[in-house]
Design brief:
The complex is a heterodimer of chains A (440) and B (161). In chain A, 50% of the residues lie in helices and 12% in strands. Chain A is globular, with a radius of gyration of 24 Å. A 3-stranded antiparallel sheet of chain A has the order 1-2-3. With 440 residues, chain A is mainly alpha-helical. Chain A has a single domain (96-334, 368-439), classed as Orthogonal Bundle (Cytochrome-c3 Hydrogenase, chain B). Chain B is an alpha/beta fold and 161 residues long. Helix content of chain B is 18%, strand content 27%. Chain B has helices at 5-11, 39-48, 108-119, and strands at residues 22-26, 29-33, 54-62, 70-78, 83-91, 97-99, 122-124. A 5-stranded mixed sheet of chain B has the order 1-2-5-4-3. A two-stranded parallel sheet of chain B has the order 6-7. In chain B, a hairpin with a 2-residue loop joins strand 1 and strand 2 (29-33). Chain B is elongated and about 65 Å long. The relative contact order of chain B is 0.14. The model of chain B has no long low-confidence stretch (mean pLDDT 86). Classes of the chains: A mainly alpha (440), B alpha/beta (161). At the A-B interface, helix 1, helix 2, helix 3, helix 10 and strand 6 of A face strand 3 and helix 3 of B.
């Protein structure tokens, strides 16, 4: 493309610094006006009693401890009842989609850790499955099994944070400590598996960074053996607790039709009675061979969302048990030398491997020109998908992250309508959003 | 009885009054290219007749070509039939505009706001077209190909000391 053609395409970019401080302040106030305008939508009617103006606009967040990160809610209230809510996102926006367009497919893996930072392993797997789909590579059976284990361990770790923080949102502090003790054990296992505790960056194109050691496998089995009784302890603390039940039952109700139309996925959708799980509907990895159920509850309130996630612990437990039993031996990297990073030891001793390593690291893996692919997995929050468009170079032309938390948060105004102020916290807790993922 | 792509192809034929709809395939998922004037009408048919209850995502793409520079890719899913497909509209280079799908799927509200914020696609008749992530006074669209990776110095006015 010649420079003149490029000039033709680019519209005239407005000159910088044209605005002075006054117009800046003006624009900021316009922004606030717009948010307030969105708050006062047409189907909202505020009743005035006498001369007292009852409507109150309350700003919650972005630094509120109960909003699970940097989520800002502008709430309009009639007494203590919520009339309308406008969530304001973007406080954690880091522009990952733009960054992805300027780095190779391998270089983006560490960035996926920072999306849903409570289950980085699941993000690694989702991203790498999309990349492998566009490159037309398939991982070896052992790698597939280990990836499945990763997904389920990540689900348990993420749900443990959720059960702790949700119980804390409604006032039960002990569960938080107990759940985090269990999560600590998982992080220790991740340390053995991947070499780090938190930001794992574990997957590679066509394989994995490290093999699962026998010690790690045994540690995982020991963890699973004691996990269910510990979970039962947590459940006993809250499930027969009158305060917990009263604060969750019937709160934040969303109908099946609304949930579908709003694009809600994952446990939040299954709590409205829709039995949809990508692990069964569009099976990836080795979920086809696994025997597990999809728990659903028809109520659609916070308590139903709680029970769906609790039941998912047991299903993950089942899947992990089967995976660890069936785990095949063999190589973890697929043999495609042009696409898969060679073993480090061979890079230093063999010519061919050195060349491949140099080419992959410097120029990246190039899918064919014009290729497009979409791959989604059922992460702990819902459908986590990556849409990749390639133009035949080592960098993705466009990478779109379909993050479940972002779409699930879109249902918040519907759920919060006509609830009380104190229920806002419960509902956000039961929705389980992670702002790193919602803001990208 | 689950639907198949053949049934959808049968519905949107030239003879049936739907000229210009092209079917293709992207890595095991069907893709349907729709003229931008008809996207609202086609979406309603997809939801009501073929039970695509969910709009999962909207991908705004800047192709950086002279004509039809922008693209909108709709990711729709049928929970009843467990069927996923994609719809694509090509948009004008100078004035990327397309009808909002909010009347069909409520999730279009936020997804369209995101595409507007990042790529600068204008969605007509959207109930609340604000920026999703960037601040309202920002004048640029970060995911356009002519926007530099490191950003534009001075694009955001910081408060004076």
């Amino acid at each position: 493309m010649s420079t003149e053609e490029v000039k033709d395409i680019i519209e005239e970019i407005p000159p910088n610094g044209a605005q002075n401080n006054d117009s800046h302040a003006e624009k900021q106030s316009i922004n606030q006006q717009k948010i307030l305008h969105a708050l006062e939508s047409e189907d909202v009617r505020v009743h005035f009693e006498g001369t007292l103006d009852n409507q109150l606009v309350l700003n919650m967040g972005p630094q509120h401890p109960a909003t699970h990160g940097v989520l800002q809610l502008v709430v309009s209230l009639d007494g203590e009842t919520v009339i309308n809510t406008v969530p304001v996102l973007g406080y954690l926006h880091r522009g990952y989609e733009k960054l992805a367009e300027n780095m190779t497919y391998h270089e983006f893996i560490p960035h996926t850790d920072r999306l849903d930072y409570l289950s980085p392993l699941a993000n690694n797997v989702a991203y790498i499955l999309a990349v492998e789909k566009i490159l037309k590579i398939e991982a070896t059976p052992r790698a597939q099994y280990i990836r499945t284990i990763c997904c389920e361990v990540a689900r348990i770790a993420s749900h443990l944070v959720w059960i702790g923080s949700m119980a804390m949102d409604v006032g039960a502090l002990t569960v938080f400590l107990w759940a985090f003790t269990e999560r600590e054990k998982i992080l220790d296992i991740l340390d053995l598996l991947t070499g780090v505790r938190f930001t794992t960056s574990y997957t590679r194109i066509g394989g994995l960074a490290l093999d699962m050691t026998e010690e790690c496998r045994l540690r995982l089995i020991t963890f699973l053996d004691q996990f269910i009784p510990k979970l039962e302890n947590c459940r006993n603390l809250i499930e027969r607790n009158k305060i917990f039940i009263n604060r969750c039952e019937g709160v934040g109700h969303i109908s099946k039709e609304d949930a579908l139309s709003l694009g809600v996925t994952g446990p939040n959708l299954r709590a409205t009675g829709v039995e949809r799980d990508l692990r069964i509907d569009e099976p990836y990895l080795v979920y086809k061979e696994m025997d597990f159920n999809v728990p659903t509850y028809p109520e659609g309130d916070s308590l139903a969302r709680y029970y769906v996630r609790i039941k998912e612990f047991y299903e993950s437990f089942k899947i992990l048990r089967q995976c660890l039993e069936k785990l095949p031996s063999g190589p973890i990297n697929s043999p495609d030398a042009k696409q898969v990073l060679p073993d480090k030891g061979e890079v230093y001793s063999k010519m061919e491997e050195l060349i491949h390593d140099f080419m992959i690291v410097n120029f990246g893996n190039a899918p064919e020109k014009g290729a497009e692919a979409y791959q989604a997995i059922e992460s702990s929050k819902g459908e986590l998908g990556f849409y990749i468009i390639s133009d035949g170079k080592g960098y993705p032309f466009r990478l779109k992250i379909r993050s479940p938390s972002f779409v699930n948060l879109g249902s918040l105004p519907t759920m919060l309508k006509n609830c009380m102020i104190s229920d806002i916290v419960t509902i956000i807790g039961s929705l389980d959003p992670v702002m790193g993922e919602a803001d990208k | 009885m689950p639907i198949t792509i053949e049934q959808i192809k049968e519905k949107f034929t030239d003879a049936g009054g739907f000229a210009g709809i092209i079917f293709s395939d992207i890595n095991n998922y069907p893709m349907m290219e729709v003229p931008k004037e008809r996207i609202l009408e086609v979406s309603k048919i997809m939801r009501d007749e073929f039970k695509f209850e969910q709009l999962k995502d909207i991908v705004g793409v800047d192709r950086f070509t002279k004509n039809d520079r922008f693209e909108c890719i709709y990711n729709i899913y049928s929970c009843e039939h467990k069927f996923r497909m994609f719809m694509k509209v090509r948009l004008d280079s100078k004035k990327p505009e397309v009808e909002s799908l909010y009347p069909v799927w409520q999730s279009a509200n936020w997804s369209e706001r995101e595409a507007y914020d990042m790529v600068g696609i204008n969605f007509l008749n959207h109930p609340d077209l604000r920026r999703m992530y960037m601040m309202e006074e920002y004048e640029y669209y970060p995911l356009r190909k002519d926007y530099p990776l490191m950003g534009l110095p001075g694009a955001v006015q910081l408060p004076k000391k």
